[in-house]
Structure formats: C-alpha cells, structure tokens
Design brief:
The protein is an all-beta fold. The chain has strands at about 5, 10, 20-25, 35-40, 45-50, 60-65, 70-75, 80-85, 95-105, 105-110, 115-120. The strands form 2 sheets. Strands 2, 4, 5, 6, 9, 10 and 11 form a 7-stranded mixed beta sheet that branches. Strands 1-3-8-7 form a 4-stranded antiparallel beta sheet, with no helix packed on it. The termini are far apart.
C-alpha cells in the first residue's frame, strides 16, 4: 500500500526556516518524480518544486516556482525513501498546507499535508 507522510511543519516567525520531510513507502521510490505543492486558505493548490527521478541516472534535476527560487531547496534521499523541502527566509505568504506528490506517468500519489504557519 502506498503511503506518503509529510512532517516538519509548524509555526515560525517571518525570516525563519523550516525543513519539511516526506517519507514514502509502497512503491519504487527512485523511479518517481517527487514534488512539493502548497495550498493557502481560500486558494488553489499550487506547485512549489520538483525533483526528477533517478531511475536511469544517478543525477537529477530540480525545478522551482519562480517566486520561490533561492529561498526553497528540494532534495531527495533514495536510500531513505525521503524527499525534503528546505525553506528559508519564510514570509507571511508562505503560510499554507504543504503536500508531497509522487508521480510516474499515470501513477500519482499524494500525502496528507503538513501545516506551515508564518506569523509574528
């Protein structure tokens, strides 16, 4: 059975940092592209960042939402079935539920999300 479990969210002051973790199980992790999305109250879910699979290569590519590039960093550890999102210099507008997503063609899996609240 497939599971994606996010953790690491919480309450942080503006300018602070958080590191989100997504632990996967039930599928061949290294074959899937991993992504982070977020959904703020009253808004649609939006893409944050992605990291390609390492199914055929040990190297991977990362992609970021333009407005977040330089503050957010996505990474993965295939041995731990983990995907991470390092978030620095957090701003009030980063407040949202952050979701982890795994996809490989028609196979798409989502986690339940972790709340990130940026508040003074």
């Amino acid at each position: 059975q497939v599971h994606l479990v996010e953790s690491g969210g919480g309450l942080v002051q503006p300018g602070g940092s958080l590191r989100l973790t997504c632990v996967a199980s039930g599928f061949t992790f290294n074959a899937y592209r991993m992504s982070w999305f977020r959904q703020a109250p009253g808004k649609e879910r939006e893409w944050v960042a992605s990291i390609t699979s390492t199914e055929t290569s040990t190297s991977y590519q990362t992609y970021y939402r333009d407005s977040l590039r330089g503050r957010f960093t996505i990474s993965r550890d295939n041995r731990k079935y983990g995907t991470y999102l390092q978030m620095n210099n957090l701003q009030l507008e980063d407040t949202a539920v952050y979701f982890c997503k795994a996809d490989r063609g028609a196979y798409i899996y989502w986690g339940q999300g972790t709340q990130v609240t940026v508040s003074a």
